[in-house]
């Protein structure tokens, strides 16, 4: 394989260690190989950055192994020209493999210009991506909690949805809280236009009273789950 880079490095990133291999030398000659293993703490990664600078190595490649590459990328991003390689495309030949051999293989491929880097957006876009993914998970959690509450109400034969379209509005949430507090909710209380927090006259109240059975309420200390944490949602 013909070399196109005089100095480059390959990083084999793991949970506790990062094995670095620097290949340095003229393009037409066999390069010198420098190997060193670092930890994955911030101090160790800063030491990796200094070690690469000592060798004058600015072009670095690493595999996209889960999320383990992200801390290394964040520290080296300002001082090196980084390439994130797809693990499937740079897979070495099967056999007796080691971390040192993997790092050296990555460095050799990068020295010959055979690695096509994956797209890694800027820091602001990465932060925004994390936030949107987290919000998406929270919306899914709220939806799952709503479905759980619907199931509990149906199991207990509590037909609140018959009298209100939005069970998780202000009135609906107030009624749910009353039920979970052990209070008796009757049919008049949940009629449209009625204030669920207003005491009804015993002469007006119907005898069809609803209350969660002990087996349905279980022992949830926070029965509304994520609904109580995130409030109403648009989804």
Q: How do the SSEs run, as a string of H and E? A: EEEHEHEHHHEEHH
Total beta strand runs: 7
Shape: rod-shaped
What's the helix count?
7
Tell me the strand percentage band: 15-25%
Largest sheet: 5 strands, mixed
Compact summary:
By secondary structure, the protein is an alpha/beta fold.
Structural commentary:
By secondary structure, the protein is α/β, with parallel strands linked by helices. 37% of the residues lie in helices and 16% in strands. It is built from 7 helices and 7 strands, in the order E-E-E-H-E-H-E-H-H-H-E-E-H-H. The chain has helices spanning 42-54, 69-76, 99-111, 123-155, 170-180, 214-217, 226-230, and strands spanning 7-13, 17-24, 32-39, 59-63, 81-85, 185-186, 209-210. It has a 5-stranded mixed beta sheet. Strands 6-7 form a two-stranded antiparallel sheet. A hairpin with a 3-residue loop joins strand 1 and strand 2 (17-24). Helix 1 crosses helix 2. It starts with 6 loop residues before the first strand and ends in a 5-residue tail after the last helix. Residues 195-212 and 216-223 have low confidence and may be disordered.
């Amino acid at each position: 394989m013909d070399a196109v880079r005089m100095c480059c490095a390959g990083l084999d990133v793991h949970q506790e260690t990062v094995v670095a291999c620097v290949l340095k030398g003229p393009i037409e000659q066999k390069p010198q190989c420098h190997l060193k293993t670092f930890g994955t703490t911030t101090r160790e990664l800063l030491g990796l950055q200094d070690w690469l600078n000592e060798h004058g190595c600015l072009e670095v490649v690493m595999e996209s192994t889960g999320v383990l590459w992200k801390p290394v990328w964040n520290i080296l991003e300002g001082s090196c020209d980084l390439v994130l390689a797809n693990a499937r495309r740079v897979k070495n030949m099967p056999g007796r493999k080691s971390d040192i051999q993997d790092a050296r293989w990555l460095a050799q491929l990068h020295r010959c210009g055979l690695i096509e880097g994956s797209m890694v957006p800027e820091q602001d876009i990465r932060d925004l991506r994390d936030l949107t993914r987290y919000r998406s998970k929270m919306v899914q959690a709220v939806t799952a909690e709503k479905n759980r509450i619907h199931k509990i109400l149906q199991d207990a034969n509590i037909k609140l949805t018959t009298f209100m379209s939005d069970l998780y509005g202000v009135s609906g949430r107030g009624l749910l809280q009353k039920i979970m507090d052990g209070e008796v909710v009757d049919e008049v209380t949940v009629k449209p236009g009625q204030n669920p927090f207003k005491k009804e006259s015993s002469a007006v109240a119907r005898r069809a009273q609803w209350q969660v059975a002990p087996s349905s309420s279980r022992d949830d200390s926070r029965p509304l789950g994520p609904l109580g944490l995130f409030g109403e949602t648009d989804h």
